[in-house]
Amino acid sequence: MQINVTFRHMDHSEELKDYINDRFVRLKKYSDSPMNVNVVLTSEKFRKTAEVVITGDGIRAAAKQEHDDLRAAIDLVLDKIERQLKKFREKVKNRRSANQSSVAASKEAPMEESQDADQVIVAQKIDPKPMSIEEAADQLQISGMDFLAFINADTNRVNVIYWRKDGGLGLLEP
Fold this sequence. Notes:
Mean pLDDT: 81
CATH architecture of the largest domain: 2-Layer Sandwich
Shape: elongated
Structural class: alpha+beta
CATH topology of the largest domain: Double Stranded RNA Binding Domain
């Protein structure tokens, strides 16, 4: 995790940087991949503001908090960011579980099962429909599945659009 601290209208303080590093370490549990944490501390007369933006691994969370005490503002903004990251993680878990359950509960296509000693293979027959890549991306998001096979309307070839591990979409073209 890369933590960048910027001071506005105030002197740089190694003590505050260390405090921020100690407090923000607990955010590592929300992502296995590298995250960039940008912290902006501002002091204007009696108002102290802490602003945090976190990016990385398909995550973007931002929060801003004002308080009389800068350390209190940092703690409050950390709580806001932590709630956002928990909500994002739950959303990803729910989407993955919905994808798995919708694939298992799909009754649109006939399924064939063949059992070998320890292996179960489920074959699902599909009838790909012609559509544009944008339509396929929309259909994939609506369906909640992990991937979608379709006939590309521009090339008249079978393509597969899928969810990547970073949360983006990928396209397989033969």
